[in-house]
Amino acid sequence: MSEAAYLQVARDIREQVSSGQLKPGDKLPSFAALCEHYEVSNTVIRAAMLLLKAEGLIDGRQGKGVYVANPLPR
């Protein structure tokens, strides 16, 4: 059985952040653009975003979009 779609999307975005492709403060594409890119539904993108937000990797700003969060000091 393959991994759930939202986990694949979350992992891909996580890898883009860890590789430096996406940097803290970068704005993520719109939900519509992400749906198109990953060929998934809005529900899948929302689930992936909730997961990444819970991990502290992204920061949603109402009416502004979703951004890569600044890493927490260790």
TrEMBL record:
<dbReference type="GO" id="GO:0003677">
    <property type="term" value="F:DNA binding"/>
</dbReference>
<feature type="domain" description="HTH gntR-type">
    <location>
        <begin position="3"/>
        <end position="71"/>
    </location>
</feature>
<keyword id="KW-0804">Transcription</keyword>
<keyword id="KW-0805">Transcription regulation</keyword>
<dbReference type="GO" id="GO:0003700">
    <property type="term" value="F:DNA-binding transcription factor activity"/>
</dbReference>
<dbReference type="InterPro" id="IPR036388">
    <property type="entry name" value="WH-like_DNA-bd_sf"/>
</dbReference>
<dbReference type="InterPro" id="IPR036390">
    <property type="entry name" value="WH_DNA-bd_sf"/>
</dbReference>
<protein>
    <submittedName>
        <fullName>Regulatory protein, gntR family</fullName>
    </submittedName>
</protein>
<dbReference type="InterPro" id="IPR000524">
    <property type="entry name" value="Tscrpt_reg_HTH_GntR"/>
</dbReference>
<dbReference type="GO" id="GO:0045892">
    <property type="term" value="P:negative regulation of DNA-templated transcription"/>
</dbReference>
<keyword id="KW-0238">DNA-binding</keyword>
<dbReference type="Pfam" id="PF00392">
    <property type="entry name" value="GntR"/>
</dbReference>
<dbReference type="InterPro" id="IPR050679">
    <property type="entry name" value="Bact_HTH_transcr_reg"/>
</dbReference>
